[in-house]
Amino acid sequence: MKNDKVYTHMNRSLKFITITAIGISLYVAVSMFVKIPIGIGHISLDLGYIVLAVYCYIMGPASGAIVGAAGCTLVSLLTSGWFPVGWLLGNALIGGWCGNTYRRHRDGRCQNCLYSVIAVFVGIAIIKTVVECLLYAIPIPVKFVKNIAAFAIDAPVMCVGVLFAPRIQKILGVIHKAR
């Protein structure tokens, strides 16, 4: 009896780790598939946010935070060789916040889009700005303007993911159990 519980817990843990690793891989692949620079710093259109929104919706806050943080970090390391502490922390916050919000509002697509926009604003325009200004002594007005541009590009992409997440969940046959 006790071994069955341990075995079941190990299976759930292994399944979570595997599905989250697939999410990180998808984030990286989709992010690198289309790179359209917007002309401000190293900021470009990041379609990985579609994957992030879907993972937040289907898997919840823990997987969302890991997929967001690890995905953006790997994309940055692969494309520029730079370790993005601000992006890592900002996307971890976005993934955790959105995963928690989507879990509570399963049918509210417009509401979830609004929460996504707020989360992306806080994660990128605030968290990323503060972290990078502290680490690199960049003036806040300079970094904030660049991060507002990144927010303006990434928030709509996140909303696209929110709109498609319920359909993707049905296609995959994933059953989400609220805890």
Overview of the molecule:
With 179 residues, the protein is mostly helical. It has one domain (2-172): Arp2/3 complex 21 kDa subunit ARPC3, CATH 1.10.1760.20. The protein has six helices and no strands. The radius of gyration is 17 Å and the shape is globular. The chain starts with a helix and ends in a 7-residue tail after the last helix. The relative contact order is 0.14.
Q: How are helices and strands ordered from N to C? A: HHHHHH
Determine the structural class based on helices, strands and strand pairing.
mainly alpha
CATH architectural arrangement: Orthogonal Bundle
By DSSP (H or I, 4+ residues per run), the number of helices equals: 6
- Can you identify the CATH class? Mainly Alpha
Q: What is the general shape?
A: globular
* Helix content, binned percent: over 70%
Evaluate the radius of gyration.
17 Å
Runs in which pLDDT lies below 50 for 5 or more consecutive residues are 174-179
Return the average pLDDT rounded to an integer: 90
End-to-end CA span: 24 Å
Strand content: under 5%
The CATH topology is given as Arp2/3 complex 21 kDa subunit ARPC3
What number of structural domains do the residues give?
A: 1
Instruction: Work out the number of β strands.
Output: 0
Task: Outline the biggest β-sheet.
Answer: none
Secondary-structure topology with pairs:
Elements: H1 2-33, H2 48-59, H3 61-80, H4 85-104, H5 109-136, H6 140-172
Helix pairs in contact: 1-2, 1-3, 2-3, 2-4, 2-6, 3-4, 4-5, 5-6
Task: Note the main attributes of this structure.
179 residues; 6 helices; Arp2/3 complex 21 kDa subunit ARPC3; mainly alpha
